[in-house]
Amino acid sequence: MKVIIGSGDQIVIKVMGEQSLIIPLTVELPGESDMLIDVPLFSQRDARWRNVQLGTSNVTIGGYGCVITCIAMLLSRYGYKETPLTVNEQAKAHHGFHSGAYFIWESVIRIWPEVHLLKKIDCRSTPAPIAQIDAELTAGRPVIVYVDFDHDSANGLQTHFVLLVGKNGDQDYWCNDPWTGEQVSLVEAYGTDDPKRPWMTNAGGVIAGVRFYSGIEE
Ligand SMILES: [Ca+2]
């Protein structure tokens, strides 16, 4: 027997001579506001590279390599077989770092010619460009953003980069987080419901800056 049911319907279980058990149904269907791009995950703290020197600095990939880990995930999306370790090596060999540890966003196209920086946007004091981010994700292009690592604006911005890979409803995104190597809700991971910071309950307030990249699919 096949029965078609929908949201708002009820399932009634009646055992002979006993009271009926009524179970209301809630059916959640994926809407246009949910989507996900398939992007491999890397952790900057993976034992294979966590203790490796970042660029030519005296800090490690494990401690400060969120950017190159995002870049490794982004490149993987476009068919390059890179890891945080190989991105670090390639960038060192091609002047991809300045001041030791800072990855040069514009250097990507010199090293990986099918991927290039489109735009850098700082939005620490303005709402994030959600419509632009949505358009990029819908087109299948992951977006690098930065957030406050400790989600506490009282002590300034501790910059942490993550890779957005999909929409999670209208006010949130799925992100590949290099710190944990896991895919998480951006707002759950880096927002707060502290009433003193109401803007931190949605992605527009959590995102402090954006790096848009274009790339050619494999
Ligand atoms: Ca902070």
Supply the CATH architecture: Alpha-Beta Complex
Strand and helix order: EEEHHHEEHEHEEEEHHE
CATH class category: Alpha Beta
CATH superfamily heading: Cysteine proteinases
Global outline: elongated
> How many helices does DSSP assign?
7
Return Rg in Å: 21 Å
CATH topology name, in short, is Cathepsin B, Chain A
State the share of residues found in helices, binned by percent: 10-25%
Count the E strands. Answer: 11
Tell me the fraction of residues in β-strands, as a range.
25-35%
- Distinct ligand kinds: calcium ion
Distance between the termini: 45 Å
Describe the sheet with the most strands: 7 strands, antiparallel
Secondary structural class: alpha+beta
- Give the count of structural domains: 1
Mean pLDDT: 91
* Unreliable residue stretches: none
Describe what this molecule looks like in 3D.
- With 218 residues, this protein is an alpha+beta fold.
- It has a single domain, classed as Alpha-Beta Complex (Cathepsin B, Chain A).
- 22% of the residues lie in helices and 26% in strands.
- It has 7 helices and 11 strands.
- It has helices at 61-64, 66-77, 84-93, 108-111, 130-138, 186-190, 203-206, and strands spanning 10-14, 20-24, 34-36, 97-98, 102-103, 115-122, 143-148, 159-168, 173-177, 182-185, 209-215.
- Strands 3, 6, 7, 8, 9, 10 and 11 form a 7-stranded antiparallel β-sheet that branches. Strands 1-2 form a two-stranded antiparallel sheet. A two-stranded antiparallel sheet has the order 4-5.
- The longest helix is centred in the N-terminal third of the chain and has 12 residues, at 66-77.
- The N and C termini lie far apart (45 Å).
- The relative contact order is 0.16.
- The structure holds calcium ion.
- Residues 148, 150, 152-153, 155-158 line the site of calcium ion (CA).
